Amino acid sequence: MEENQLIKTYKDRLRIFLILYYFSENYHEPKTPNLKKLFTSEVRIQKLDFLLRNPDYLAFELLNLARGNTHNNQEIKEIIKEIFLKQEPVLRRIEMEKFFFGAYEDIDDVIAFLKSIELIEFSSTKNLELKITEKKYFITEKAITTLENKLPKLPALNWYVERLNLIKKYFGHKTGSQLKAMQYKIEEYETASWGDYINDIKAKVEKDFFELYGEKL
Amino acid sequence: MSFDFENFTQEVYEQFNESLSLEKVRDLLNLDDEYNLDIQKANAKRLVLREVNFIGTKSNGDSIDFSCEIFSGINMWIADNFKGKSSLFKIIQFALTGNNKIKKDIKKWLKEILLNFDVDSKSYAVYLNLEKSALSAKFYETKVSSIEEVKQSADAPLFEAKNVDEYTKQIQQFFFDQFSYYSMQWTQKSSKKDSDELLEANASWTTYFKSIYLESKDSDKLAFGDQGKKVFQMLLGLELTYPINRLKVKKDKLENQTAKQRTTTEISENGKNSEKNNLEKELREIETRLKNLDSQNNEKLNVSNLFAEHKQISDKLSIEISKATSIGTRRQKNDKKTAELKSKKDSIQNELTRISREFNSIERRIADYKEYLEIGSFFSNLDIKHCPSCNHSVSENKNKILSADKKCFLCHDSVKEDNNQINQESYLAKTEELKLESERLKKRKQELIISLEITQKEYDEAVSYSEVLEKELQEVGETAQLNQKLIEIENKINKEKENPQLPNAEREKFIEERAILSYRLKQLITPIVKQNNTLAIEIELLDFAINRLSEYRYQLSENTLKRLSELMISEIQEFGLKSFTRVEITDNFDIKYEQDGDLIEFSEIAEGEQLRAKLAFYLSLIQLEIEQNIGRHTKLLIIDSPAKEEGDATYLEGLSDVLKNIEKRFSDKLQILIGTAERNLAGVAVNQHTVPKEEYLF
User: How many CB atoms lie under 10 A from the CB of residue A213?
Assistant: First the structure.
């Protein structure tokens, strides 16, 4: 496999797995004691992945929260400064294309891989027209042990843990549709054509940040 | 139709006939009758590589004897990364240019290279021998079928070279002659800090070769590195390109001369100052004598008061005038300095942007490798328990059997046991290499930031000094008023003197002497100004001529450039980039792309789309040549790792379509060499060399 593609496949697997792990709810069903956590809806995976892959969009959403004055503005300011200081919008950004329902990338292969090594279980509900209406992803006990044993020893991956906890803190309560609606409010996201890459909004965030805090990023 | 130099000279002369003679104008514009060089040179040839051979013995004793035929159309080498694809291209580059970028470990064992190629239908061969510390090269005007044959051949080579420099010069001359290239020039300040010399730089064959060899490290540039616009102009070969380029260099030199002269003027000023002081002293003495004489002669006339007043005012006037002149000179100098600093600042800023972009991309890669290895370790030792396709369990027994056979549980392809190990080591080694490069770029970035800060500070100082001078100038007294007063007094004195007075020979003599001294004083100051003026006019003239020529070139080539942009946009859309609607080429040879209503530059195009835009550019140039017989591209492209630039999997399909499309339309008109690790591209090219996984090309 081409090197870039290989690296991307690896990163996709890790990101999607960590999203499922950190954003799932505890699950208890005596018939399947092996399944410990549950995550619902693929849309939610896609939208959370978008925030993870685009630090500039995450910063923009945080700025929106700060404007609403419902959160600790000083804390948000420091977070955004840190994101820009580390040049994340340049160094961490992974372009994403836009399809009918916003940012989207086929994750079937990733899910199949995670399932094949039994880190997740997967089920989908179909309606009368045999259309898939809801996808459910279960985290297995093996996944939890693997993660707890291995992750602390892998420092380069710590960024994902911290970032996901941050996203969870501010946006963890939102459903896939709510996240989608939130992202569609951004002009660059909304106006991207079908199949095009969604442009970065680094400059926009810099401008808005200056307007709100009177400081340059 | 050729360009009429005499008419043009006349046109320029009419603008400047008040200050310069026709002869001088002709002399300034003269470029040894080469105004029509671009037309004389327009001819469309084609470079086709035929075969590459090289031999050597590796340190482990393995002897390498590589030989590969190359054909018109697309030639593709598919092999894993680090298995020799890039090295093959670097060997070809070395043979074609003398520019040796071959990796160290290959240089160690590489002994002899033979490259056969055609220019149009004529065969040529290059033989390079690297066995000794100095290169030895032979260039034949005929096909040479093997390295063995070189040694036995009775044919005398067209030329021979005993070292790399000599070979680089000769091969450049050969390709320049064949493809009608010449060296575009530009000027640059000497790198020595204390030197104000302006150096002439020439675009070489190696520079132009960047339009043939598209390396993945240059993926975010449309073409050809820092001298891109010059290479673009050379590839287009538009009429009047040569005189525009050369007159610009002439102008740069004159400007530099002016700057230098200012400095020398200051130095010679000191010498002149002492002469000036002497003259002024003499003048004062004469004036005193005259005054005494007059007061003796005109005791009755009470003009002495008037004289005193006159002297007082004229002293004041001369002080004010000299103040204003000195401020004027300083301001002129400072304006020039401000402009120079501004342009220096801009060029540092541009370089900084370029370096930062390169630095970021390397940092990103380092982080990617680190993550890649850790993610690999995260998912390692987790056995496949379910088939992801049918969801059936994979039985342990089956696992064991397949594992013993070294086959994949799912697809049954063979798997090498030490795959991971090799991978990890090679990635660690690559990371180390990247870190060194990153350190280098970081250092360069720091240097640029510091030099930008210094330049910015100097610039700010120059700007504020200019404000200070402006203020000083305002404070200089009103000279017109003083002048008026002087005239009034002089009139009064003259009136008084109209009263009968005996002619006095002695007085006449003093007046004469005074006139001579004043004249000499005046002469002492004017020549400097005059000389500076002439240079300024010459620069203005060259500027005017360059602008006129650029306008003519644009008029003459408007249709060509329009056609080129049409071809570009149609190629871009053919390659599936439908969001691009227009391409604009300015008279300054900047290329802009219109996407969703915005005009953007090549570097701003999404990474996943740059390669297609780049291919569109070269194919358009080549088509323009076919249609209009304009342009000088060699119609050979070497593309290293095209898929690397386009990380996105869906793009691969697109790239494969693009290549098939090119093969279908252009296979008999151009030659493309592609090296890729992307096995999905197999089957795209007719001439394809696939190396099995993990194996080396040579």
Answer: 17
What does the pLDDT read at residue A34? 93
Show which residues on chain A lie within 8 Å of chain B, measured between beta carbons: 1-8, 10-11, 13-14, 87, 90-91, 95, 97, 112-113, 115-119, 146, 150-151, 154-157, 191, 193, 196-197
Q: How far apart are CA B241 and CA B234, in angstroms?
A: 8
Bridge partner list, B407: B414
Q: Cα–Cα distance between B183 and B41 in angstroms, integer?
A: 13
Helical H segments across B19-144, by residue range: 22-29, 37-41, 85-97, 104-109
Q: What is the mean pLDDT of residues A41-68?
A: 93
> What is d(CA B328, CA B532) in angstroms, rounded to the nearest whole number?
14
Residue with tokens 């259309």: A131
CA distance B617 to B613: 6
CA geometry: angle at B92 spanning B91 and B93, to 5°? 90
What pTM was estimated for this model as a whole? 0.53
Angle at B108 between CA B106 and CA B113, to 5 degrees: 65
B117 in helix, strand or coil?
A: strand
Q: Which of A4, A97, A117 to mutate to test the interface with B (most CBs of B within 10 A)?
A: A4
Complex ipTM: 0.92
Farthest-apart Cα atoms in chain B, separation: 141
> Cβ separation of A4 and B370 shorter than 8 Å?
no
Q: Which amino acid is at B241?
A: T
Q: Is the CB of B579 less than 8 angstroms away from the CB of A146?
A: no
| Tens of pLDDT, residues B527-569 | 555 566 788 888 888 888 888 888 888 888 888 888 899 989 9
- Tokens 């790198």 -> residue: B191
- Report d(CA B280, CA B277) in Å as an integer: 5
CB crowding A27-60: b at 16 or more within 10 Å, else e:
eeeeeeeebbbbbbbbbbbbbbbbbbbbbbbbbb
What DSSP character marks residue B509?
A: H
| Test the B interface: residue of A116, A146, A158, A163 with most B CBs within 10 Å | A116
Residue partners of A22: CB distance under 8 A and separation at least 6? A161, A164, A165, A168
- Residue B172: Cβ within 10 Å count: 21
User: Phi-psi category of A152—alpha, beta or left, where left has phi over 0 and alpha has psi -120 to 50?
Assistant: alpha
Residue recorded with tokens 């004083």: B521
